[in-house]
């Protein structure tokens, strides 16, 4: 069965094209940079919630801030993994400050097999980065969204 996620990729020209991405939280990602960043996104149930609504909800849940007002362009649906599809929207983030975040949290058993539960932030930081750096930093399945964004903005 396929799991569905939706996300919002903010962009700005500063003066070069930059995107807002978030470093995944938790102990597994703590010391990683390459392939450890994500578009703010999360799961939704097709038919029960529209992807655009899910992208907005997840942006707020992960970063603790409302996304900028305005129109969003659908960049497409991408195979995030063999069993997960990701619908990505692009929004103009000109003027959106990458500060004041209140990151959402998740719980997991930590350390492994300890029987103890610990809370970790879903993401532990978010920042504007140019497209070349974003291609290196994003998890592999999300990188095609950057190409779609470039095609949209050309």
Beta content comes to 35-45%
Q: What is the terminal-to-terminal distance?
A: 36 Å
CATH topology: Nucleoside Triphosphate Pyrophosphohydrolase
Rounded to an integer in angstroms, the radius of gyration calculated over CA atoms is: 15 Å
User: What is the helix content?
Assistant: 10-25%
Number of helices: 3
Mind summarizing the main beta sheet? 7 strands, mixed
Give a written overview of the molecule.
Helices cover 19% and strands 40% of the residues. The relative contact order is 0.27. The model has no long low-confidence stretch (mean pLDDT 96). The protein contains three helices and nine strands. It is α+β, with helices and mostly antiparallel strands and 154 residues long. The chain has a single domain (3-153), classed as Nucleoside Triphosphate Pyrophosphohydrolase, CATH 3.90.79.10. The chain has helices at 51-63, 131-137, 144-153, and strands at residues 3-13, 17-24, 37-38, 41-44, 72-81, 84-92, 105-109, 117-121, 123-130. The strands form two sheets. Strands 1, 2, 3, 4, 5, 6 and 9 form a seven-stranded mixed β-sheet that branches.
């Amino acid at each position: 069965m396929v799991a569905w996620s939706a996300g919002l990729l903010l962009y700005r020209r500063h003066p070069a094209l930059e995107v807002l991405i978030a470093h995944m939280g938790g102990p597994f990602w703590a010391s990683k940079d390459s392939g450890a960043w994500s578009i703010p996104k999360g799961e939704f149930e097709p038919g029960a919630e529209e992807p655009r609504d899910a992208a907005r909800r997840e942006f707020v849940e992960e970063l603790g801030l409302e996304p900028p007002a305005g129109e969003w362009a659908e960049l497409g649906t991408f195979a995030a993994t063999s069993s997960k599809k990701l619908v990505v929207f692009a929004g103009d983030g000109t003027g959106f400050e990458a500060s004041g975040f209140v990151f959402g949290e998740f719980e997991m058993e930590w350390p492994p097999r300890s029987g103890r539960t610990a809370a970790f932030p879903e993401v532990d930081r978010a920042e504007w980065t140019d497209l070349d750096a974003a291609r290196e930093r994003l998890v592999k399945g999300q990188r095609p969204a950057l190409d779609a964004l470039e095609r949209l903005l050309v």
